Amino acid sequence: MTQCCFLRVHPLFFWFWSFHHRMALALCLQVLCSLCGWLSLYISFCHLNKHRSYEWSCRLVTFTHGVLSIGLSAYIGFIDGPWPFTHPGSPNTPLQVHVLCLTLGYFIFDLGCIWRFAWRKSIKKYHAWRSRRSEEWQLKHNGHLKIH
C-alpha cells in the first residue's frame, strides 16, 4: 500500500491508471494515422483531378469513406461477429475499434472540409440575408433606405 495525500492507494491502481493512459494514447495514435490517411487520399485526388475543384476531391474522399465504412460494417456485422442483435453491449472487438478510429479520423477530416468549403459560403449567405433583412426592416419602418 502506498500513502499519498493522506489516502491509502494500492499499487495496482497505478498500473491500472497507466494502462488506461497507454490505451488512450494508442487510440489517439490510430485516429491521427486515420486522419493522415484521409488527408493523403484527398491530396492524391487533388493531384489526379487537377481540372476539378478541391471540393470535388473532398466529395470523392467522402464517397470512399462511405463505401469503405459500409463494407467494413457489413463484414463485422455479418461475418466477423458478434451479431449485434444477439450480443448487445458485448465488448468491442479489435476490428470494431479500428473501424471506429478510421471513422473518427474521417469525421475530423470532414470537419476541416466543412470549415474550408461550407463555412465561407454559409457566412456569405448569412451576411447577404442579414443585409437584405436590414434593408427590408428600414423600408418597412422608415419608408426609405438610410444609406450612409
From TrEMBL:
Transmembrane regions listed in the UniProt entry: 23-45, 57-77, 97-118
Domain named TLC: residues: 51-148
InterPro entries noted in UniProt: TLC-dom, TLCD5
Subcellular location: Membrane
Keywords: Membrane, Transmembrane, Transmembrane helix
UniProt superkingdom: Eukaryota
This protein's record includes keyword NADP: no
Membrane topology: Multi-pass membrane protein
Record-level GO cellular component terms: membrane
Broad class of where this protein is predominantly found: membrane
Entry protein name: TMEM136 isoform 1
